[in-house]
Design a protein that fits this description.
By secondary structure, the protein is of the alpha/beta class. The protein has helices at residues 2-22, 24-64, 113-119, 130-140, 145-153, 157-171, 236-256, 268-272, 277-291, 318-322; strands spanning 87-91, 124-128, 174-177, 181-183, 201-203, 205-208, 222-224, 228-231, 308-310, 313-315, 342-344. The protein has two domains: 2-48, no CATH class; 87-351, Spore Coat Polysaccharide Biosynthesis Protein SpsA, Chain A (Alpha-Beta Complex). The strands form three sheets. A seven-stranded mixed beta sheet has the order 2-1-3-8-5-10-9. A two-stranded antiparallel sheet has the order 4-11. Helix 4 crosses helix 6, helix 6 (157-171) packs antiparallel against helix 7 (236-256) and helix 7 crosses helix 9. The chain binds 2-acetamido-2-deoxy-beta-D-glucopyranose (NAG) (2 copies). Residues 71-72, 74, 197 line the site of one 2-acetamido-2-deoxy-beta-D-glucopyranose (NAG). One of its GO terms (biological process) is protein N-linked glycosylation. This is Initiation-specific alpha-1,6-mannosyltransferase. It holds the Pfam family Gly_transf_sug. Keywords: Membrane, Transmembrane, Transmembrane helix.
Length: 352
C-alpha cells in the first residue's frame, strides 16, 4: 500500500501541470477559489470571536437606536468587556419612631434579598446600615463637609437612603437596589456583552404617561426610578445628583421651613423632588440631553418598547425595572416579560 501511495504523490504535481495546460481557465479559477477559501477559513478560525462581535455590534446600533457611538478604535471582542462592578448594595436604616425606641429588626425586611444572592453568585453583597453609612461618608467625603453635614443631619430616612445610594454608586459602582425588589435576571445579563464596555449607567423607567393622564405627584411626563440603579464608579450623573440634592435640601430648610435641617419634616412630594425620583429624573434627563441635544422633554422617551442606548447610558423601557404596575403599559397580567430584570414590590414606606 505504501509504494502505491508514494507513487500517487509523486505523480500529482505533473498531473496538475498537465491538466492546467489542458484546461487552463477552468483549473486556474478552481485553484484561485481553493486559495481564497483557505484564506477565509484561516481568517475566520483566528478571528472568529471578533468577527462575530463586529457583526453583532453593527446590528446593535440599529436595535438600540441612535446615540450609541463607539468610544474609540479599540477592537471589540479581543478583550473581555469591562462591565458594571460585581457589587450589590442595599440600605437598611432604622426607622425612627416618635413614640418609643426603633422597631426591632425583622428578617422579613430582607425576604427578597435571596433572589439577588442566588442570581448573582460571586458578587459582593453589602447591606449598609446606620453605622456603615456614616463611616462610608466620613471616609470618602472628608474634603466635602457639606455632604457629611447634610447626610448626618437629615432626619427623613427616605432622603438619607436616597443620598447614600448616590454616594455609594459614585465611589464604588455596582448595583443599588431597594430591599423590596426581587431580582429576575442576573446582573451579568442586564447589559448585552457587545455594549458592556461602553455602558456606564443603567436606568429604568417607573412611570410613562404615554397618551394618558398625569399621575398624582409626578411632575414629569416620564419618570426614572431610583429603587434600582446600576453604574460604573465615578459616573458624573451622581455628582450632579448630589449637588441637586444638597441644593434642594438647603432650600427646604432655609426657605420652605425656615428651620434647621434636623428639625424639618418634608412632605412626600418634597422628598421626591429633593432627593427622590423626581429630582433623579431632572438630573438624569439633563445628563441625557448633554449626550443627545435632540432630547427636549422626558416625553421624547415615551412609548419606548425596548432598551435604548444614549451615549453611555442604557435606558430600559418600563418592563426593565418597572414591570407589574397598573400604568405606563407595564406588563401586569401575572406573567414575567422577557425584558424584566427586576420587580419592585412597593412595600417601602419611605415617604414619612
Ligand atoms: C479607548 O478605550 C479604552 C477602553 O474603553 C480606554 O481604556 C482608552 O483610554 C480609550 N482611549 C482613548 C484614546 O480614548
Ligand atoms: C422641584 O425642585 C426644584 C429644585 O429644588 C425646583 O426648582 C422645582 O420648582 C421643584 N418642582 C416643583 C414641581 O415644585
Amino acid at each position: 500500500m505504501l509504494p502505491l501511495f508514494h507513487e500517487l504523490e509523486k505523480s500529482l504535481p505533473s498531473r496538475i501541470i498537465f491538466s492546467l495546460a489542458k484546461r487552463p481557465y477552468r483549473t486556474a479559477s478552481f485553484v484561485l477559489f481553493l486559495v481564497l477559501a483557505s484564506i477565509l477559513w484561516v481568517y475566520h478560525a483566528i478571528a472568529a470571536e471578533s468577527f462575530i462581535t463586529l457583526f453583532n455590534s453593527g446590528l446593535s446600533t440599529q436595535v438600540f437606536g441612535p446615540g450609541g457611538g463607539r468610544h474609540n478604535g479599540s477592537a471589540p471582542g479581543l478583550h473581555k468587556p469591562v462591565g458594571i462592578p460585581m457589587k450589590i448594595w442595599q440600605i437598611m436604616l432604622p426607622k425612627p419612631r416618635d413614640d418609643g425606641p426603633p422597631h426591632p429588626p425583622d428578617p422579613a425586611q430582607l425576604q427578597d434579598t435571596p433572589s439577588w444572592l442566588v442570581l448573582n453568585p460571586d458578587y459582593k453583597y453589602t447591606l449598609v446600615g446606620e453605622r456603615g453609612g456614616i463611616e462610608f461618608v466620613d471616609k470618602n467625603f472628608a474634603d466635602q463637609p457639606a455632604i457629611i453635614d447634610t447626610y448626618k443631619r437629615l432626619q427623613n430616612m427616605g432622603m438619607k437612603s436616597d443620598l447614600l445610594r448616590y454616594l455609594l454608586l459614585y465611589i464604588e459602582g455596582g448595583v443599588y437596589t431597594d430591599t423590596d425588589t426581587v431580582a429576575i435576571k442576573g446582573v451579568d445579563e442586564w447589559v448585552p456583552d457587545f455594549i458592556k464596555s461602553e455602558v456606564n449607567l443603567v436606568v429604568g423607567i417607573e412611570f410613562d404617561r404615554r397618551d394618558g393622564a398625569a399621575w398624582a405627584e409626578i411632575p414629569h411626563w416620564l419618570q426614572f426610578c431610583q429603587w434600582t440603579i446600576a453604574a460604573k464608579p465615578k459616573h458624573p450623573v451622581f455628582q450632579m445628583m448630589v449637588q441637586r440634592a444638597l441644593y434642594s435640601i438647603d432650600l427646604l430648610s432655609t426657605e420652605v421651613y425656615d428651620s434647621p435641617l434636623d428639625s424639618i419634616s418634608p412632605t412626600s412630594f418634597e422628598v421626591m423632588n429633593s432627593t427622590g425620583p423626581a429630582a433623579w429624573t431632572d438630573v438624569v434627563f439633563e445628563y441625557l440631553q448633554q449626550l443627545d441635544p435632540s432630547l427636549e422633554d422626558t416625553k421624547d422617551l415615551s412609548f419606548m418598547t425596548g432598551p435604548r442606548l444614549i451615549g453611555d447610558v442604557l435606558v430600559l423601557n418600563i418592563d426593565g425595572f418597572g414591570m407589574g404596575q397598573q400604568h405606563s403599559k407595564s406588563t401586569n397580567d401575572g406573567t414575567i416579560p422577557s425584558q424584566a430584570l427586576v420587580k419592585h414590590l412597593f412595600r417601602g414606606s419611605w415617604r414619612s
